[in-house]
Amino acid sequence: MQRWIIVQLVLALLLSTTPLAMGQEARVPGTSYSTALELGVGEHSFYLERGDTHYFSVRLERDDTLYLLLRPAPNQDFDVALVSPEREVIELSLRAAGFTERITYTASSSGLYYIVVFPFGASSGAYSLLIEISKPRVTTVTSTVTVVSYVTLTHRELRDVVIAMTRESYRTVTVTSLQVVGRGLDVLGWSILSIAAIAVAVLIRDGLIRARSATGAGEKIKEGETGV
Q: How far apart are CA 40 and CA 47, in angstroms?
């Protein structure tokens, strides 16, 4: 009877540990870029043997900010590198033994980035990787551009006398766009040029329509313009 109870306990223990073993096997760190284990946001724990190197990957969109913390085992010295999708080292954290390694990086392009964990000297043991990803904030920007245009109006008098005159027209064009908060002056300058180009396009379109209407009807166009 006692033997039967022992067998049942052993079977129950084996069944309870099988899913855990399978889960751990599915989360084995890669040994190269091609076998890198893809990680998501959260805290992940692994064990680094002496002389081994662990490869992980994380997917970032453009302007995402990655916050990476590596907490090594006590008195052990682990270092970490962030590598671009082109497999070029972007950031390195090489602190002394026992210190938490930190990397913060804002992605310049979308893609799969790599995290490489390696020991210094004879260090080995458990460690944890904490991954956080911050999405960029966007704001609505409304810009107003006032541009001067010239409209030629034709007026037909009696006896087929044609009078043509050109006058200035001031038009205000408002353009609304979404921009990433915290961009540099180069992006701001580009936005202003883009808005100005849109404003000119609107003026050209409206000017052609108004001029065509004036020629066909033989009357001056006054709607939406302030003459000078």
A: 18
Domain count of the fold of the chain: 2
Structure tokens at 48: 């680094």
Residues 210, 142: contact at Cβ < 8 Å?
A: no
3-state secondary structure of 99: coil
Return the amino acid letter for 44: H
- Final residue before a domain boundary, out of 102, 134, 166: 134
- Token code pair at residue 216: 């066909």
Q: Output the six-digit token pair for 150.
A: 């010239």
Name the DSSP class of 192.
H
Q: Evaluate whether residue 167 is within a structural domain.
A: yes
User: Which pTM value belongs to this model?
Assistant: 0.56
Condensed to tens digits (0 to 9), the pLDDT of residues 15-34 reads 444 444 444 445 899 999 99
CATH of the domain at 103: 2.60.120.380
Do 178 and 206 fall within a single domain?
yes
Q: Which two tokens stand for residue 164?
A: 């043509």
What does the block give as tokens for 113? Answer: 């980035």
Tokens of 62: 């453009």
CB 61 within 8 A of CB 133: no
